[in-house]
Automatic annotation (TrEMBL), chain A:
SMART domains: Ald_Xan_dh_C
Domain of life: Bacteria
Organism encoding this protein: Sphingomonas oligophenolica
Pfam families: Ald_Xan_dh_C, MoCoBD_1, MoCoBD_2
GO MF, one example: iron ion binding
Ranges for domain Aldehyde oxidase/xanthine dehydrogenase a/b hammerhead: 37-141
UniProt protein name: Xanthine dehydrogenase family protein molybdopterin-binding subunit
TrEMBL record, chain B:
Protein name: (2Fe-2S)-binding protein
Keywords, sorted A to Z: 2Fe-2S, Iron, Iron-sulfur, Metal-binding, Oxidoreductase
GO molecular function, one term: 2 iron, 2 sulfur cluster binding
InterPro entries in UniProt: 2Fe-2S-bd, 2Fe-2S-bd_dom_sf, 2Fe-2S_ferredoxin-like_sf, 2Fe-2S_ferredoxin-type, 2Fe2S_fd_BS, Aldehyde_Oxdr_Iron-Sulfur, Beta-grasp_dom_sf
GO cellular component: periplasmic space
Residues annotated as domain 2Fe-2S ferredoxin-type: 1-75
Keyword Iron-sulfur attached: yes
Chain ranges passing through the membrane: none
Lineage: Bacteria, Pseudomonadati, Pseudomonadota, Alphaproteobacteria, Sphingomonadales
Pfam families: Fer2, Fer2_2
Keyword Ubl conjugation among record annotations: no
Length: 732, 175
């Protein structure tokens, strides 16, 4: 196996000189026909014979101690096969990649925490039986209101340590202009369309799980550890995943519970969380309180920047929303303070949801920059440009690539950026405004392996345990291999979603595409080396297109060079010294126009344009679609998404689509996405940076800034619902 | 119970509480129709019953023994795609694909509604629906796509409806 860590910039010859011309093209998804005809099978589908159905019984109180579980009524129900509780392996919560599951205990961390599982012959019986299980509890601390609980200013959890560079108070005292405001953001549900689901069965002592999961390689280890079996005895299958958005990065309790139930009854068992249960058994993004302090001179040059926040977690959770993550390298300022404090609550787990950090952090920072620009009498783009750093303002490292200024300029031109004074543009009863924001999402490269086989017939197969959660993994892997080996895309078969395949990065943190495609690139390079050897050429001389290799005017079909035995190469790509030497991120600029009804306060987003720097664009169609998705998340997070806790009981008031309002079609205007493409040779061999989380970064702030521009009303408590606008609207 | 699904006859023995959606997915093996919420809020389960779009999670199988049920599997196959299926692929009117069968079945039913002259909430003229982008969006708002491929979904449906691209959803345009 070839291993190549990113110890120096790397630009694969095969991509630079690729003649197939397929990488980056806006090709339709290769699995598209399966998806539009209903042939693509998700976790709850493709059911083995003899299946039984499970339902999860949740704790009826948000905190306290379980005194008694009475399953007798459920067990007596015809069609019930088993009711299981008290198994020491049963998870009390989600087993994410950082925290192992906590096992059956009498302590309840949150409402709906799994305490028993019922197994029945059909879904209707399972549902009825789950409702018949009686769970008695004594009350606990009932800490259900994050804003009412004490703040731990030195939390021991989270991956982003506090940063305090320079004397903040002194810098602010010396600054000619000081900005100081607090913003709040609500609880945010990932709410993937496919509810968390697993089908589990045992083949002798080996567990097979079809699971809706973003990172199956890590899931395999977590499942094995939870069940106390060897990792080799677990196989996870996820050929199609119905959306993830961070909510499926870990191992939900339903996975372990299905495995335990299947073991107990000796039959395959499947479980899908009812929609309302997803709010309790899947982590959400914490609500946040964010305090922004900026000190600058009269020209807007920032000398001090502080982003100080509070986020929530329950007693068993180890994740803490890294609120200022995107702020770290965003703007100038020698004095830099970044910190997130913790409130412990008795609510469901908080965790990584699409762009942890940036998605909420940019609400505060990018609204603050808009406010500061007005305070200084500057155009908000001009203020940002004046504070564009030359090197990472925290670490001093050089940026690998950073095209932020180009994103501002290109976006401004395409949008027709010409902001008018607040509340000055009116079309009948509609107040019209425009807003913009910067977008930034840190880039990660993660270890990934792939096998590429060049078959005797000249076709190629690429194998890796990646997932495609809607991101386009199938298609971009095919495009990468097709480009490297000079094949039509139809001649590349992609095998993913199976832990029997080489371990990959999985889908999370926007690192999947760059990492997995890089492993495929490296494997293809080994194949090219072997092909070159067979025709006495150097790999650099090869010109490959449509299944033929050309060297010095001589053309040979790949199939003729393979000679019976497939050429197989396995490679590993990962981070290295170059990853540490440089500061890496994807960048962008968001532009938005809204209309706010002067009578009702209703907000309509009329148009939105995003311009993005994401390194090499692997497929313009799927990349643009992901960015559109992120922008729409920004719209809905700014305007309507708001997980509300009943602080008397710790349950969610709105745990479903009827009450928790994600964007629907009519909420979304036509959206334009454009790219400033520069291959990032420091990021990874594919030269690609993250896409999926960038689109939400700054998007909500652009909407909020446009609302302010339309109405003159600045709302700092998200979402910007009409009740917060009405009092400040100009007379009709 | 006996059913006609995609022109074929099926017999199933199912709990009386079984929804059409669970009948399709768990009893007759047609898993193309998806369960996203199981209470009529997301539209992923949309099928056509006697040509009209229906949330199949909200209606009991036992009520539909004499009806014609059409699912995504009955619209087309990978080798012979329905025009809407082909348009969703061409315009990338999806990402994860989970809501897609419901979106497409819904679009088939919706285009038929528009053809019959049924107005939408945003129709400027209740007598003459023009199937503008705003109308397509409004008529398709019972089908949630959390990946939010909405602009591409509208592009796909607009193409099949034979409409030219137009400025869409301009609030206040009538003011």
């Amino acid at each position: 196996m070839t291993e190549q860590m990113m110890d120096a910039p790397y630009r694969p010859h095969g991509l630079t000189n690729g003649e197939q011309g397929v990488l980056g093209q806006p090709l339709p998804r290769i699995e598209g026909a399966a998806k539009v005809t209903g042939q693509a099978t998700y976790a709850y589908e493709g059911t083995p014979a003899g299946i039984a159905y499970a339902g999860i019984v949740g704790a009826p109180r948000g905190s306290g101690t379980i005194e008694r579980i009475d399953a007798s009524a459920a067990e007596a129900l015809p069609g019930v096969i088993a009711v299981i509780h008290g198994d020491p392996r049963m998870p009390a919560g989600e087993a994410n990649s950082r925290a192992m599951p906590s096992f059956a205990s009498d302590t309840v961390f949150h409402y709906g925490q799994p305490v028993a599982i019922v197994v029945a012959e059909n879904q209707a019986v399972a549902r009825e039986a789950a409702a018949l299980v009686v769970v008695e509890m004594t009350p606990g601390q009932d800490r259900f209101d994050p804003r009412a609980e004490p703040i731990d200013t030195a939390p021991k959890i989270g991956f982003l340590p506090p940063i305090a560079k320079g004397d903040l108070d002194a810098a602010l005292a010396e600054a000619a202009v000081v900005f100081d405001q607090t913003y709040t953001t609500p609880i945010h549900f990932p709410a993937a369309m496919e509810p968390h689901a697993s089908t589990a069965w045992w083949e002798d002592d080996k567990l097979i799980v079809r699971s809706s999961n973003q990172v199956i390689g890590a899931a395999r280890g977590t499942i094995a550890q939870a069940l106390g079996i060897d990792k080799d005895k677990v196989r996870v299958l996820a050929p199609y995943v119905g959306g993830g958005f961070g909510g499926k990065t870990g191992v939900g309790p339903e996975v372990i519970l299905a495995a335990i139930a299947a073991e107990k009854i000796g039959r395959p068992v499947k479980v899908a969380l009812p929609r309302r249960q997803t709010a309790y058994l899947v982590h959400h993004r914490s609500d946040t309180v964010q305090h922004i302090k900026i000190g600058c001179d009269e020209n807007g040059i920032i000398s001090a920047f502080a982003h100080l926040s509070v986020a929530a977690q329950h007693d068993d959770g180890e994740f803490l929303e890294p609120v200022p993550f995107g702020t770290l390298p965003l703007y100038r300022g020698a004095v830099r303070h970044f910190k997130t404090d913790l409130v412990r609550v008795d609510l469901p787990a908080t965790g990584a949801v699409r762009a942890p950090g940036e998605a909420v952090g940019t609400f505060a920072v990018e609204c603050a920059m808009d406010e500061l620009a007005e305070q200084l009498g500057l155009d908000p783009i001009e203020l940002r440009k004046r504070n564009e750093p030359d090197t990472d303002p925290l670490s001093g490292k050089p940026f690998s690539t950073r095209r932020m200024i180009d994103c501002y300029d290109d976006g401004a031109t395409r949008f027709g950026w010409n902001p008018q004074p607040p509340a000055s543009v009116r079309e009948g009863e509609w107040l019209i405004g425009t807003g913009m924001a910067a977008a930034l999402r840190g880039n990660f490269t993660v270890n990934a392996e792939a096998i590429v086989r060049l078959e005797a017939d000249g076709r190629a197969i690429v194998e890796t345990d990646m997932t495609d959660i809607g991101t386009g993994t199938y298609t971009i892997l095919a495009q990468t291999v097709a480009e490297m080996l000079g094949l039509p895309i139809a001649d590349v078969e992609v095998r993913i979603g199976d832990t029997d395949l080489p371990p990959s990065a999985g889908s999370g943190g926007s690192f999947g595409a760059g990492s997995a495609c890089s492993a495929a690139v490296l494997a293809c390079e080994d194949i090219l080396t072997e092909l070159a050897r067979r025709i006495n050429a150097s790999p650099d001389e090869l010109r490959l297109k449509d299944g033929c290799v050309r060297v010095a005017g001589r053309e040979t079909a790949l199939a003729d060079l393979v000679r019976g035995e497939p050429i197989v190469a396995r490679a590993k790509s990962g981070p290295g010294a170059e990853s540490k030497r440089t500061s890496q991120a994807s960048h962008g600029a968001q532009f938005c126009e809204v209309a706010v009804n002067a009578v009702t306060g209703e907000v309509r987003v009329r148009r939105m344009i995003g311009v993005y720097d994401v390194g090499r664009v692997l497929n313009r169609k799927t990349a643009a679609n992901q960015l559109i998705g992120g922008m729409v998340w920004g719209i809905a997070y700014a305007l309507s998404e708001d997980g509300i806790v009943d602080t008397r009981t710790g349950h969610f008031v709105n745990p479903d689509f009827g009450e928790y309002h994600v964007a629907v079609n009519a909420d979304v205007p036509q959206i334009e996405v454009h790219f400033i493409e520069e291959v990032d040779t420091s990021a990874n061999p594919a030269g690609a940076k993250g896409v999926g989380e960038l689109g939400i970064s700054g998007a909500g702030a652009a909407v909020a800034n446009a609302i302010y521009n339309a109405t003159g009303v600045r709302v700092r408590d998200f979402p910007v619902t009409l009740d917060k606008l009405l009092a400040g609207l100009p007379p009709v | 119970m006996k059913f006609t699904i995609n022109g074929r006859s099926y017999e199933a023995e199912a709990d009386i509480r079984t929804s059409v959606l669970d009948l399709l997915r768990e009893h007759v093996g047609l898993t193309g129709s998806k369960k996203g919420c199981d209470h009529g809020q997301c539209g992923a389960c949309t099928v056509l019953i006697n040509g009209r779009r229906v949330n199949s999670c909200l209606t009991l199988a036992v009520m539909h023994q004499d009806d014609e049920i059409t699912t995504i599997e009955g619209l087309g196959t990978p080798d012979d795609l329905h025009p809407l299926q082909a348009a969703f692929v061409a315009h990338d009117g999806y990402q994860c694909g989970y809501c897609t069968p419901g979106q497409i079945c819904s679009a088939v039913g919706m285009l038929d509604e528009a053809k019959k002259g049924w107005p939408s909430h945003v129709s400027a003229d209740l007598e003459h629906s023009d199937l503008s982008d705003a109308e397509i969006s409004e008529r398709m708002s019972g089908n949630i796509c959390r990946c939010a491929a909405y602009p591409n979904i509208v592009d796909a449906i607009r193409e099949v409806a034979g409409r030219a691209p137009a400025g869409r959803d301009v609030a206040g345009a009538d003011a």
